[in-house]
Amino acid sequence: MSRNDRILVASAKGGVGKSTTALGLALAFSDMGKSVLLVDCDISSRSLDLLCGDDSEVLYNLGDVILGRVNGEDAVLHPFAEYPDLGFCAAPHLFQDEEAFEKTGRHLEQLAGEAVMQLAERVPRDVLIVDTSSGGGVTCAGGMADTLTTVLITAEQSHTSIRAAEYTAFQMEKIGIKNQRLIVCSFDAQAAAKGQRAGVIEMIDRSTLKCAGVVPYDRRLVLRQENGLLPDRKCISRAAYRNIAGRLSGENVPLFTGMGRYGRKRSRIL
Ligand SMILES: Nc1ncnc2c1ncn2[C@@H]1O[C@H](COP(=O)(O)OP(=O)(O)OP(=O)(O)O)[C@@H](O)[C@H]1O
Ligand SMILES: [Mg+2]
Question: Is the distance from CB of 242 to CB of 258 less than 8 angstroms?
Fold first, then answer.
């Protein structure tokens, strides 16, 4: 197994590409031939079931694992025929919180990290990827801190987003998580080249995080997500996530590999 086989995606800020990154990496690792367990821990704003194409098949979820109703595999779906080794566990429903609190004296969010570890023991895969909520990433990571190999912190180019990345990194550090990496999401290269928005180096400097990769703004990805479709190979983000998965697996992949014009404009965008 690789050193980076247990990955949690986080940011204190909402809407900065956490879920897109979790799914993008799950597909990328699958493309590399690895088996993947993707778990949604975003209780307040569960979205991976929708991004995986459909929520109607979600019978059991992580909440049922927490409540002891199901035993591992039953809570894991295989939503993509082309990726039979990609398992997905949906986020708990908010209404399960009351029962969880009655049974354990703790809320779902506080129980999620431990439940993910239980699930990962019962359903072992090469790579575990955990998506978290904007408020709950650190709490979730706390339940799995000893076993996490990498925390990926996503940020867009806005000042608030970069500040949230720095704050998240600080909180993760406090619970002992050392291996943290920045993922730059929805990167607007044109604005960076014109000096209108932060470039990659500025984002690294300001967040104080090492960067695992840059995902360009990808309109095709947005339209496909809205229509319940996976990003296809024409999506530039697909190449970006493939590069990131390669780096996390120890490959030496230059920043804009496979991204055409981004590679050519590299010096201006950075
Ligand atoms: N590379 C990209 N290019 C264009 N749009 C993107 C990209 N990545 C994410 N988005 C869009 O940004 C929005 C937020 O993305 P996403 O849901 O992944 O963020 P999140 O951090 O998980 O949000 P939340 O905090 O609500 O869970 C979505 O509409 C998504 O389509
Ligand atoms: Mg999300």
Answer: yes
